[in-house]
Amino acid sequence: MGDFDSNPTLLIDRNPIQPPLPEGRSYEISPEIIGLVKQNQFQGKPQENPLEHIDAFEEICGTISAGGAPKEYLKCKLFSFTLTGKALRWVKSLPAQSITTWKEYKVAFLGHFFTKQRANLLREKISSFQQGPVEPFHEALERFKDYTRECPNHGLSEGSLWNIFYRGISGKCRFSLDTASNGNFMTKTVTEAKILIENLASSDSDNFIGHERAVKAINSDPYRDGYSEIKAMMAEILRNQGREVERQREAYRVESTIIQDYFGDLIPSFQEEVNFVGIDGSAHREEAWKGRA
């Protein structure tokens, strides 16, 4: 037991991330910086995008400094703080002191979490792209661009990408591109095709925003809102009138019953038509029985 406790392998630094320090230098990373990068956590779940995680991390690192520490050194030291769950267990499973540069760290991270299966699924999303039935052209373009950003190793040329996009958009949008191309969009160069697509997307976006504003203006029409308020007020007035008429009718019935009971046969029987207003404002006629012969 004593020999096992004194085994030197138990005492070595098992941290797999060991970027070299410039000779004679040391750097202190503040808790505030660590807390900042920990706000962007990666767990290693299938729905998470490892490329986007690295992009966000590098963007944060571009805004911070730690006593003059080299950026590559800083990234190596901080990246592990952005990992949790399955991702943190993965980095701890790496051999001790096996990662010494930020490039090595990125290669290892993407090699583990950006799998071939994931890349194939993303390539399929690109190749099978279709504009939605009610999807605006500019939103379809943004979605297609998102697909290509998610999979930079798709292996397709720029010309092939725009051919896929052209085939996937609606017939109406293809017609617009063909018209702008003087007949055939497919005869354009990649540069010309991109300009035409971006111009159409810009025009579509402007029209879409204008349509939304028009709908909003219609829905918030002050005249229509004022009419609705007046209509509600009139309905309330009519309801109040109906309740008042009903109260008077009930008082009349009670009074008639008392008189009939008191005078009996001294009062001849008669009927009288009574007019009243209903809750909806319509006029009604009702026969009130006053006595009996």
From TrEMBL:
It holds the Pfam family Retrotrans_gag. InterPro entries: Retrotrans_gag_dom. Residues 1-23 are annotated as: Disordered. It comes from the Eukaryota. Residues 77-169 form the Retrotransposon gag domain. This is Retrotransposon gag domain-containing protein.
